[in-house]
Write a structure and sequence with these properties.
This protein is of the alpha+beta class. It is about 20% helix and about 30% strand. The chain has a single domain, classed as q2cbj1_9rhob like domain (Jelly Rolls). Bound molecules: fe (ii) ion.
């Protein structure tokens, strides 16, 4: 499958943006699966989530058809982009090592964090407000924010952060070292996303030896 993606390339770092084909046909089923999971496991896991719910991180092994479809799509898009970015040969092993859901209710946010030691990480938006209310000179609620690894700003560097307002079906893929956070949102409807990590087989094998 050939994919369309843009490299947003901020701070000298690759931030790929893509959208999954046929995502809308599966979106509500994925959303419902995540809401059902939260109803079963209300406390979830504690990671970067502040007031928000974080599922367990092995949804790539779920037996639910919607999750299996999403896992295949994320793997296909992610592994092609990583192979391109890292100039890896076709036989180099790439693993999708974790996949989890995030449900942020009114006021919830995610603290700044990175995903090391995973080499590549990403997010896909399942159910978000694509047109949040903005205030002048303010961070848009619910935005994902990426931080410059050398956050000195002007006059030496561009602005130390770059923000994106999520859209349903949009996927971002970025190096696992890249610090990022999610701004709080103030909608009655939850902001639902899924996040994932990739590992490079060559790196894992070298560490194991
Ligand atoms: Fe993250």
């Amino acid at each position: 499958m050939s994919i369309k993606a843009e490299n947003r390339h901020h701070f000298g770092v690759s931030i790929f943006e893509s959208s999954l084909p046929d995502f809308e046909a599966h979106r509500l089923e994925i959303k419902q699966a995540l809401l059902d999971m939260r109803a079963q496991d209300t406390s979830g896991m504690k990671r970067s989530n502040q007031r928000g719910w974080h599922s367990h991180d092995e949804l790539h092994q779920s037996k639910l058809p919607a999750m299996q479809w999403l896992t295949e799509q994320i793997f296909s898009v992610g592994s092609q982009l990583i192979r391109h970015a890292e100039k890896l040969p076709p036989e180099a092993p790439i693993f999708l090592s974790s996949l989890w859901g995030n449900i942020n209710d009114f006021g919830a946010w995610n603290a700044p964090h990175a995903h090391l030691p995973c080499e590549w990480s990403g997010v896909i938006y399942i159910d978000v407000n694509e047109n949040p209310e903005m205030e002048p000179n303010a961070i848009t609620p619910g935005d994902i924010m990426f931080f410059d690894p050398i956050p000195v700003g002007a006059p030496y560097r561009p602005s130390a952060t770059v923000n994106y307002t999520p859209k349903n079906g949009t996927l971002f893929l970025f190096p696992g070292y890249l610090l990022h956070m999610v701004a709080p949102h103030y909608e009655q409807d939850p902001r639902i996303s899924m996040a994932f990590n990739f590992r490079l087989g060559s790196v894992i094998n070298n560490i194991a030896r």
